[in-house]
């Protein structure tokens, strides 16, 4: 349904996109995951026809964005990083405005009412957008993307800046939309993409560095659990004990608290839950465990493990020096 062929976007010497190719099937819910500056927004702006590529092409149902931008735009609902809201309009005025802009042919009131109900903004539909919370504004942004019922919805960092309750609500809304639309969304947060998408495309420095089903990545996250353990006990003896336990791949002393409490970072072997063993072994030795918490796997961890480690670092430092040049 969506075919992206070797997209390159250059700004002067700098490559915002450095040859991205990708195919997305009808009904897929795909996440673009990458740190700030990776090229996610650039890719989305090109796919939606709002930015031209330096080279490469995008096809939606075999139609090139270049050949028929208007038709392609009609097949995509887009929520950009900064939603294009007219904040002095009421929600309804704004959605009517978008309806006209998109030259929508559905029955106006019925269509807008339906969308308001789907994104749960019926209650606020007569309020001025300026007075709405960030979460509600984001829903209005999603509503404008849904006008015309496009088969593809593209959302750029849809939960950025929202509070935790709003994040949960927007996530579940997106999951529901995923039942009826092909969706691409972007985020720099691994757990967020994991919670919504079936497939994860990791982008870094304008390139795709991994493209995997979410459950495969979840297995990786599962297989690389790390814990911070706080123990009141002699530093080196505790460390030696932790390193000797079955199921522990590595243990490091990583910090210290008042009262002779030391912090260790322990990496478990794939699929082993080492928490009980850590607890009971420390107890047997009379060294009280003062805390045990799981570390969240970060995007950086995923990069380093999934991507060829050396290549990644080499590329990264090369890019960093280009960035410096640009800033100079
Ligand atoms: P992301 O959305 O993943 O944070 P972007 O696509 O916004 O990343 O940006 C990718 C890279 O392109 C960044 O290094 C950014 O600074 C650069 N970039 C984006 N837009 C422009 C522009 N108009 N002029 C120059 N550089 C740009
Ligand atoms: Mg962005």
Strand content: 25-35%
Structural class, judged by helices and strands? alpha/beta
Q: Please give the share of residues in helix.
A: 25-40%
Number of helical regions: 12
Amino-to-carboxy terminus distance? 42 Å
Major sheet: size, sense and barrel closure? 6 strands, mixed
Series of secondary-structure elements, N-terminal to C-terminal: EEEHEEHEHHHEHEHEEHEHEEHEHH
Q: Please provide the count of β strands.
A: 14
Unreliable segments (pLDDT under 50, ≥5 consecutive)? Answer: 321-328
For the biggest β-sheet, the strand order reads: 6-7-8-3-9-10
Mean pLDDT: 90
Taking all Cα atoms into account, the compactness measure Rg is 24 Å
Shape: elongated
Hetero groups in this structure are: adenosine-5'-diphosphate, magnesium ion
Topology:
Blueprint: E1 2-11, E2 14-24, E3 29-33, H1 40-47, E4 55-60, E5 63-64, H2 69-74, E6 76-79, H3 91-101, H4 108-118, H5 134-146, E7 152-155, H6 164-177, E8 182-187, H7 190-196, E9 199-204, E10 207-213, H8 214-223, E11 226-232, H9 235-244, E12 248-257, E13 261-268, H10 275-284, E14 289-294, H11 299-306, H12 309-327
Parallel strand pairs: 3-8, 3-9, 6-7, 7-8
Antiparallel strand pairs: 1-2, 1-4, 4-5, 9-10, 11-13, 11-14, 12-13
The site of magnesium ion has 5 residues, from helix 1.
Structure description:
The structure is a single chain. By secondary structure, the chain is of the alpha/beta class. Helices cover 39% and strands 28% of the residues. It has helices at 40-47, 69-74, 91-101, 108-118, 134-146, 164-177, 190-196, 214-223, 235-244, 275-284, 299-306, 309-327; strands spanning 2-11, 14-24, 29-33, 55-60, 63-64, 76-79, 152-155, 182-187, 199-204, 207-213, 226-232, 248-257, 261-268, 289-294. A hairpin with a 2-residue loop joins strand 4 and strand 5. It starts with a strand and ends with a helix. The protein binds adenosine-5'-diphosphate and magnesium ion. The site of magnesium ion has 5 residues, from helix 1.
């Amino acid at each position: 349904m969506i075919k992206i062929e070797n997209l390159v976007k250059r700004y002067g010497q700098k490559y915002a996109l450095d040859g991205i190719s990708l195919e997305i099937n009808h009904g897929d819910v795909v996440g673009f995951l990458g740190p700030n500056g990776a090229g996610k927004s650039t890719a989305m702006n090109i796919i939606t026809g709002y930015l031209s590529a330096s080279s490469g092409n995008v096809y939606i149902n075999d139609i090139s964005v270049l050949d028929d931008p208007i038709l392609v735009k009609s097949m995509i609902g887009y929520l950009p990083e900064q939603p294009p809201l007219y904040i002095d309009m009421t929600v309804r005025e704004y959605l009517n405005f978008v309806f006209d802009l998109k030259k929508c042919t559905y029955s106006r009131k019925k269509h807008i009412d339906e969308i308001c109900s789907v994104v749960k903004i019926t209650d606020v539909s007569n309020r001025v957008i300026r007075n709405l919370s960030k979460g509600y504004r984001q829903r209005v942004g999603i509503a404008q993307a849904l006008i015309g019922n496009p088969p593809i919805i593209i959302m750029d960092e849809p939960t950025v800046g929202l509070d935790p309750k709003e994040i949960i609500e927007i996530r579940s809304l997106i999951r529901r939309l995923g039942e009826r639309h092909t969706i691409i969304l972007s985020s720099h947060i691994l757990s967020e993409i994991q919670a919504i998408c079936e497939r994860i495309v990791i982008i870094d420095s304008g390139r795709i560095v991994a493209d995997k089903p979410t459950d495969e990545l979840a297995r990786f996250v599962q297989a690389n659990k790390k814990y911070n353990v706080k123990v009141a006990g002699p530093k080196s003896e505790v460390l030696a004990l932790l390193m000797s336990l079955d199921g522990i791949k590595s243990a490091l002393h990583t910090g210290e608290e008042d009262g002779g409490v030391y912090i260790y970072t322990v990496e478990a072997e794939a699929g082993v839950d080492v928490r009980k063993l850590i607890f009971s072994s420390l107890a047997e030795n009379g060294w009280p465990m003062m805390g045990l918490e799981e570390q969240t796997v970060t995007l950086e961890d995923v990069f380093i493990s999934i991507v060829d480690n050396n290549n990644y670092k080499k590329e990264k430092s090369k890019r960093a020096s280009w960035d410096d040049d640009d800033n100079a």
